[in-house]
Write a structure and sequence with these properties.
Layout: E1 3-14, E2 20-31, H1 46-53, E3 61-66, E4 69-70, E5 78-81, H2 93-98, H3 107-110, H4 115-128, H5 144-156, E6 162-165, H6 174-192
Parallel strand pairs: 5-6
Antiparallel strand pairs: 1-2, 1-3, 3-4
Length: 193
């Protein structure tokens, strides 16, 4: 099995040549279907690594490839969930979850003609994380844990080839955290069939 994500001698420096060195000579290889975790103290480059792999930030040096292609900008094959839910406050929950479908091809092209199919898919994800019945609520009407569960649904809606999670369950209680890991595990098992 070949590598799906590969970093070769990757450096990232913020603020120019005299700025803060976030990553130095980083080498990582991850195969398709593998789970990988990066663990370390706050401020040691974990979030920076995620931004590099997803194409949100270019490396200062080195090479990053995902699915055999060099990363030169934001990737459409990635779903991301950050430490804090990044839901848009003016959009209702269902609309927030469906946001990637308005951006990522081929879903963007299909959405106008297959809206109901996508709505049902989004509702199914919300039900998996116990948010059915909240589709028409705004994020500010939900608890932090509920927002984070919706954030996970939004990361999964377009069936990404690569799911990047930046401590999305850190602020959740142990029961909810365990429940969401179970959701991810069952979705992963479904994809492997």
């Amino acid at each position: 099995m070949s590598n799906f994500v590969k970093l070769e001698r990757v450096d990232l420096r913020y603020g120019g040549s005299n700025g803060v060195l976030a990553l130095n000579g980083t080498d990582i290889e991850i195969k398709r279907g593998e789970f990988a975790a990066v663990v370390g103290p706050s401020g040691w480059g974990k979030s920076s690594l995620m931004k590099l792999v997803t194409g949100l930030t270019p490396p200062t040096a080195g090479k990053i490839t995902v699915a055999g292609e060099t990363v030169v900008g934001p990737l459409k094959c990635v779903g991301m969930a950050f430490q804090n839910p990044t839901l848009l406050p003016w959009r209702k929950l269902l609309s927030n979850v469906m946001l990637p479908l308005e951006i990522v091809q081929p879903h963007r092209r299909r959405l106008p003609h297959h809206r109901q199919e996508y709505v049902e898919k989004a509702k199914g994800l919300l039900k998996m994380v116990s948010l059915d019945g909240f589709e028409e609520r705004h994020p500010w009407e939900l608890s932090g844990g509920m927002q984070q569960r919706a954030n996970l649904c939004r990361a999964l809606i377009h069936e990404p080839d690569l799911l990047m999670l930046d401590e999305p369950f850190g602020a959740l209680d142990a029961f909810t955290r365990e429940e969401l890991w179970g959701v991810l595990d069952s979705l992963s098992a479904r994809e492997r069939k």
